[in-house]
Amino acid sequence: METENVFKDNINTARDRFNQTSALILQKLYKCEWDEETGATDGHEQYGYGGEDFLLFDMKNERWIAPVRQGLITKMKWDDNVKLKAKIHYLTHTCIGWLKKYVFYQRSMLERTVPPQVTLFQKNLSCPVTCHATGFYPKAIKIFWGRDGVEIHDDVVHEETLPNGDGTYQKRTHLTVSPEDLQKYNYTCTVQHIRGDDVVLSANRDSIRRNIRRHYNITITIFMVFVLVTLVIGVVVIKRKGWKGKDPTAGKEKQCPTSLPEKNVLLLNDAKPAEMEKPKMSHPADTLQCPNQDDW
Questions:
Q1: Apex CA 10: angle with CA 57 and CA 67, to 5°?
Q2: What's the whole-model pTM score?
Q3: Neighbours of 171 (CB within 10 A)
């Protein structure tokens, strides 16, 4: 609460110095860096007001820098030797201590590698063939299409790598190709990841159609089960309540929305993404201690 009040006071101070009737946005950014191999540390802190730099901390030369004249008063106030030493100690010791703690807790997550699960699918023969890799970690991955052993780039569209809900990633690459060329040439999708050997899938016309048929079979099966369950429930309700004629006031009731989601996605992939181990904190109360906020 004290820090919040100081920020409010600083906003009012900045508004007065800039001769404004209404306050703009006050931003604060600070970070600390630690090189695990050399042990070197570094830190940075800066303030912005109204989208412009207001104050910058030069830790190397132990001083504050005011890019605008409205920040000169604060610079001279914060260049006090005691305040500077306290700021440097926080960035090089307190913040670094918390950084090391978080790295220790999440090392198993940061250093783990999970191989991708790769599948090919095509909505219909007039749509692009999609090579879909999912469930991999770390994020870096390469997916490319080839024809008769030669990498191709024309008619290939790469989507950005997206996060999954379990901390892994997924990526799709699409190839636009005619059914005739798909049958004539040997198209392959190659996925390269740090974990394991390359995954190479052949995109011949017959194999993709099997995926499509599987999609239809799953859809039909689910639909038949739904119809059967609905019929059973209907029979039970009729037997319990007895048959009643149509309610003449039924047409006056408000109709429920019948719109369907704009897009349904089915991933043709039997493998489940690897579950990510959650980091363990030594104490529930462990939270990063932010530096004290000084008034301007």
A1: 40
A2: 0.46
A3: 20
3-state class (DSSP) for residue 154: coil
Confidence band of 234 (pLDDT split at 50, 70, 90): low
Separation of alpha carbons 74 and 95, rounded Å: 23
Length of the chain: 296
Is the domain covering 24-111 a CATH 1.10.10.10 domain? no
| Secondary structure E strands in the chain | 26-34, 41-49, 52-58, 63-65, 117-121, 129-136, 142-147, 150-152, 156-158, 162-163, 169-175, 187-192, 199-202
CA torsion through residues 215, 216, 217, 221, sign: positive
Question: Quick one: fold of 117-208?
Answer: Immunoglobulin-like (2.60.40)
Residue 45: Cβ-neighbour burial (10 angstroms; 0-12, 13-18, 19+) = buried
Question: Is the model more confident about 204 or about 214?
Answer: 204
Sheet holding 41-49, edge to edge: 26-34, 41-49, 52-58, 63-65
Assign 283 a pLDDT band (cuts: 50, 70, 90): very low
Q: pLDDT tens digits, residue range 114-141?
A: 999 999 999 888 899 999 999 999 999 9
**Between these two residues, 232 and 270, which has the higher pLDDT value?**
232
DSSP string, 181-240: HHHHS-EEEEEE-SSSSPEEEE--HHHHHHHHHHHHHHHHHHHHHHHHHHHHHHHHHHHH
With contact defined as beta carbons under 8 Å apart, do 55 and 71 qualify?
yes
- Beta-carbon contacts of 174 under 8 Å, excluding residues fewer than 6 positions away, are 128, 129, 130, 131, 156, 157, 159
Domain ranges of the chain: 24-111, 117-208
